[in-house]
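[User]
If only I could read backbone structure tokens as easily as an amino acid sequence. I have put the entry right below:
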Amino acid sequence: MIFAVVGLVLVGVISVLNLVILLVVLRRWRELEASGGGGHSHGHGFPTTGAISSIRTGDRLPDFSARALDGTAVTERTLLEKETLVGFFSLTCKACVEAVPLFARHAERLRADGGTSLAIVHGDDSADSELAAMLSEAMDIVIAEDSEAELSKRYGAKHYPSYAWYGPDGMVTTAGAGVSALRAQPVAS
């Protein structure tokens, strides 16, 4: 009988310890999210130490039709037959601002090689945002979308900032999420 009581007490203590650890991890996760460092599926930033992209090598450029900030009509055909860098940004992502100069360097190098770059910024009033203005100076095409992020969803982007390199055939050659992935100098193969 004493062994049963000791066993039940031990199971209870382990269960309480497990619960405490879970609560600490959840609290830390929320703190990271709030500071722009957590990887939330709706994109409130990403750790600068790296993350896994939801866009995969071999994914096809999705069909879409949108208006760029400069009023130009943009479709998937605009991006075909050349190397293309597509960047995904969110107004709620602090790391996205840090990523703009990195995207700018990649976009400049790509432009020199005859390629193009596209930035998709999502969030309410994203067209008039400081982030969209910064990206307009760096990228060839900038599209603003509301907080529903329909275009980002069509691409499969779930994390911000993230990127995808598309080859001339419209297939993803490399993709990544987070500032460190951009620092790793993404190069289309």
Q: What stands out?
A: The two ends are 68 Å apart (CA to CA). The helical segments are 2-34, 76-79, 94-112, 130-138, 150-155, 179-183. Residues 2-34 form the longest helix (33 residues). The first strand starts at residue 65 and ends at 67.
